[in-house]
């Protein structure tokens, strides 16, 4: 069904295995999800995206659960089935409750609604909102 | 420039003024932004959306600043100019720092990137991600 | 500001002028809007799109005002500034009132909201909805 | 498969049952579709969205079938599978014919095409289109 | 599952069969894919879209494989499952390698990321980029 | 107007200046565009995105002009004003002619149209398109 082959660990080059090993070590898991197996068709892209995910999703000014919720908000807005499942699973593992998920989705829904009222009626941005 | 008239307080019906008064009282401000002035062309929609915003953005399982960040994430993904300015202003007032905004946008950017890799390559959702 | 030259009638080839003439005759106007002036850089595209607009927007199973409202709904969802202005103007000329525009935008906003609740929570389509 | 539990009538709180009862009474049906069963995880959101749907989709300046067609136009543009099935079913029940659906989709398709030509070529909005 | 009937060759009107015959002759194939069978519910739309595809996808200033890659880029960005499968198949038939597909998707992903950084942070367009 | 400060070279930290220097050296220019000046508020993001752009946009299985055209296709689809201007300028510098731009936009427009016909009518993917 996938438009590219999924590269299993057993079939992977040493370069790809090194990234897979780092993913599993960083996450404390013993398996690789399909996103990385698809990217492994291009080892440079695999390495770049994994480095990006590690950097962007690490704790910083925002905590990891907040970052997962933002990821879910974007994925719901774009309708990415894979990302909705994978990042909701990640967020659940980091403590996302049903109540938090429902509030998150309520904000996502409302923002999508008011975004279109603004884009369709095209009133100007209030001067006070401009930095 | 707006596609509908902006209803100023001085020209508003008592029904619209009641909503405007509640907006200003709830927010502790003395002005109404253009979003509400445009919606006031349909008082039922004005009332419904204000009730929704009050309910959805109130503190609950998620705190108000987290909700504003989710709003910004959706607005950036949809490219809503008005909403990006207004909700970044709201988030700033609730404590959003430059560092937080940059991390928020980094997650938004990365999610938009990986969403398309998943949607374009169409590998299946891993069984372990399904609840 | 435009990324391609806008082709004015005076500078247009006979092939482009013929399309411009048909646009003005069909619409009963004496001017050409910028959309067509930009497309005129590729006469085959100009001809194809004008033929498509004439065919698709003509009265049929749906009346022209309903078609303009659908156009506005899509343009607001996609945030097309040019199309929001031009098709709201066309709809106004065909009888769109403020009340109709506000109801149209209320449906557009709500649909954008519930679309994301469905895409984010990913519950299955009810069997009864499947034809 | 759903990312939240679907709340069946038999398991629902009195608060949720009251909304379910109103949905069935308003629609003249004896079943609840999955959209509401998912929202029922947050009774306040269930109530708010049902109130919104009742208000927005009621006959007004636009008739209910026109509103369903606008809903379909937005759902096709956003690629919401659930909403395309559910609102096409609603529209069929209100009289949508094959000919109307095909014309609706032709307008949706064309609007999505011309939206991108405008957004990609970035010619200015004609002054005559500005209210 | 389809929201309209799929019109098979055996059941098609002479008008529809003529388009089907031209599709098969132009492509050197002996079958019709579901996209056209769905459009055949409206023969005028079937004819118009087939004429458009023939004109737009023909070799010109850009070669056909480049055009297929642009089609894939748009389809991944919009999350069109049908179009991702059908145009990746077309591109494969025209010589798209795994390496090309992975690079194409890397550009699509990155563009989607930087698009949102620009839309969310809203810095002005540099004067030097304006034609 | 920008939602974050634009970091000028004169005010930049040595870490940021090193990236700016590499951008100018790689591109053979003597100025930095606003995209990077905004990202410089988070030097780690600046570094990561610049590394990504260098890697992804370099010649490989696809040539740089093809990559710029794919970037334009995505930016037009998402309606990113900044990216449309900046990547059309880049593509022009790499040889994009008016004829190529018009054909590119014709494909982008048509893909956006057919994407919605597929998403709205929801006919199944033909088995022959599945790898």
Level-1 CATH class name of the largest domain in chain A: Mainly Alpha
β-sheet strand percentage of chain A: under 5%
CATH topology of the largest domain in chain A: AhpD-like
How helix-rich are the residues of chain A, as a percent range? 55-70%
Largest sheet of chain A: none
Number of domains of chain A: 2
Large-scale geometry of chain A: elongated
Entry keywords:
homohexamer; 131 residues; mainly alpha; AhpD-like; 6 helices
Structural summary, described in words:
The structure is a homohexamer of 131-residue chains. With 131 residues, chain A is an all-alpha fold. Chain A has six helices and no strands. Chain A has two domains: 1-58, AhpD-like, CATH 1.20.1290.10; 59-131, Up-down Bundle (AhpD-like). Chain A has helices spanning 14-27, 34-39, 43-57, 64-78, 81-93, 98-121. The longest helix of chain A is centred in the last third of the chain and has 24 residues, at 98-121. Chain A is elongated. Chain A starts with 13 loop residues before the first helix and ends in a 10-residue tail after the last helix. The model of chain A has no long low-confidence stretch (mean pLDDT 98). At the A-C interface, helix 4, helix 5 and helix 6 of A face helix 4, helix 5 and helix 6 of C.
């Amino acid at each position: 069904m996938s438009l590219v082959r999924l590269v299993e660990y057993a079939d992977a080059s040493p370069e790809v295995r090194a990234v897979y090993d780092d993913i599993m070590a960083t996450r404390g898991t013993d398996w690789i999800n399909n996103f990385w197996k698809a990217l492994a068709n291009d080892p440079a892209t695999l390495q770049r995206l994994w480095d990006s995910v590690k950097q962007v999703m690490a704790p910083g000014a925002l905590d990891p659960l907040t970052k997962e919720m933002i990821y879910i908000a974007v994925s719901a807005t774009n309708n990415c089935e894979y990302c909705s499942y994978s990042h909701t699973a990640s967020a659940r593992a980091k403590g996302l409750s049903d109540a938090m998920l429902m509030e998150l989705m309520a904000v996502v829904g409302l923002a999508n609604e008011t975004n279109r009222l603004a884009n369709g009626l095209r009133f100007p941005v209030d001067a006070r909102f401009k930095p």
